[in-house]
Design a protein that fits this description.
elongated, Ferritin, 8 helices, 221 residues, mainly alpha
């Protein structure tokens, strides 16, 4: 018993000496645990480092939404958008004329459709013009070139059926050209592409509305 107590006493003295000399091992966190936080790359390696992003953002601030990594030809995108803008404005004007000139026993429901479409086309024009400005361009509202830039034509139509038919033709032209624009923008400008996709969806809805009106009027006659 005496020897055991002496042994324990000796171990106690050795432990105290080790503690006082700093020889005891202490479990520290691994270096990797805090390194990611320090580097600021915990969001993923695909992101540019924060310092570079901040530096780029301060350069050429007058370019607005167009950053150095913008992959598209911005002048070409603005030009294409100005054509789409002209298309929307011409559609507004045509729908407005048809709204005021529509006459006949079934004209009230058709007039309401014309007015709704005119208002929605006007909203599309605003979206496109706003995007042009964001890209550093200028929306072209010059009346003398609107018909030249527009994909669709301004056709007045004589009868109510003629008006519906001309509006349907114009919508189908817009649908085809906007689909091409959406595909052209793929991988180049996701924001502009999304805007044009939304407008395209509404144009398809317009075409369906007009087709239903046209079929209904033919059946009634």
């Amino acid at each position: 018993m005496k020897s055991a107590r002496c042994s324990a006493h000796a171990v106690g003295h050795e432990g105290a000496a080790a503690a006082s000399s700093g020889a005891l091992k202490v479990n520290h966190p691994t270096a990797g645990a805090g390194s990611a936080k320090g580097k600021g790359t915990s969001s993923g390696s695909f992101l540019t480092d924060v310092k570079t992003l901040r530096s780029r953002a301060r350069q050429h601030m007058e370019e607005g939404a167009v950053t150095p990594d913008y992959p598209a030809d911005v002048d070409m995108v603005v030009s294409v958008l100005n054509e789409a803008l002209a298309t929307e404005i011409v559609c507004v004007l045509r729908y407005k004329r048809h709204y005021f000139m529509a006459q006949g026993i079934a004209s009230e429901s058709v007039k309401a459709e014309f007015l709704q479409h005119a208002n929605e086309e006007s909203a599309h024009a605003d979206q496109i013009a706003e995007r042009i400005v964001q890209l550093g361009g200028e929306p072209d509202f010059n009346p003398s070139v609107l018909s030249e830039r527009s994909h669709s034509e301004y056709v007045e139509g004589d009868s109510l059926i003629d008006m519906i038919r001309e509006d349907l033709v114009a919508e189908r032209i817009a649908i085809q050209s906007y689909r091409e624009i959406v595909e052209w923008l793929r991988g180049k400008d996701p924001t502009t592409r999304r805007i044009m996709e939304e407008i395209l969806a509404k144009e398809e809805e317009h075409a369906e509305d007009l087709n239903s009106l046209l079929l209904g009027m033919r059946q009634a006659s």
